[in-house]
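Hello,

Our lab assistant flagged a job as stuck in the queue for most of the afternoon. It eventually completed. Since we weren't sure the result was trustworthy after the delay, we are filing this so someone can double-check. Below is the sequence as submitted and the structure that was eventually returned. Let us know if re-running is recommended.
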Amino acid sequence: MKDDAAWYEAAFVVGVTNALNVAAEGLPALSAGVLTPVDEVSAAEPVAALFAEIRAFYASAEVPAPFRLVALDPGYARDLWEAVQRAFAPNRLRRPLKEALAFAVSLTTRSSWGTQFHGAELKRLGISERGLLEVLGVTQMFSSYTKIADTLQLESDMGGIAPVDGTPAPG
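-- returned structure --
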C-alpha cells in the first residue's frame, strides 16, 4: 500500500478539484441575486483569517470566488479550504503536477471556472503555454479513447495486470 501512496494522493487531488468545481457551479446564482458572497474587505473573523490564508496560498490579491461563496457558511468554507490545502500541498507529487491534474479534471468535467483557474495557477507556477497545451492534448486523447470505449461498451483488458487490493485507503 505504501507504493500506492502517490496514486491515493492523485485521487485526492481529483476529488477535491471536483468539489471546488461543484462549488464554483454556484457562481451563476451570484449574478442572479440568489446568493451574495462574503465581501473580502468586510469579512469578520474567522472568515477574514481564512481569506488571508487562501490569498497567501495562491499568492493572489483576491480570494477565488467559490471560496467567497461557500464562506456564507464559515464551517463549510474551513472544511473545503483544509481539503484544498491538503490536496495541493507538495508531498509525493509536486504542486505543478497536481495543478495539471486539476486542469485536466476541470477540462473533462467542463468546468469553465476550474479550467480557467487551474490553467492560471499552472502559468503562475511556471508552466508555459506549450505545457498547458500538452496537458490539454493528453486529456483530450484519453477522454476521446474513453468515450470510444464507452460507446462500444468495451470491457477492460487490464484486469489481470495486478491483483485487486482490498485494503482501505489510508486515513
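-- support follow-up --
The delay was a queue issue, not a problem with the job. The result is valid. The chain has one domain: 2-151. The chain is about 65% helix and 0% strand.
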